[in-house]
Amino acid sequence: MNQSVKLISSFVDNGIGGNPAGVVLEAGGLSEADMQSIASAAGYPETAFLSNSEIATVKLDFFTPTKRIAHCGHATVAAFSVLAQQGKVAQGKHSKETVDGLRNIRVEGDKAYLEQIRRHVTPITAEQQEAAARALGLQVEQLNALATPHVVNVGVSFLVIALPTMSDLRNLTPNMESISALSEALGLIGFYVISPETEVSGRTISARMFAPYFGIEEESATGMGAGCASVYLYEVLGQKSEHYLIEQGRLMTPRSPSLIEAELEITDGLPHRLWIGGVAKIMED
Question: Do residues 105 and 126 both lie within one domain?
Answer without folding.
Answer: no
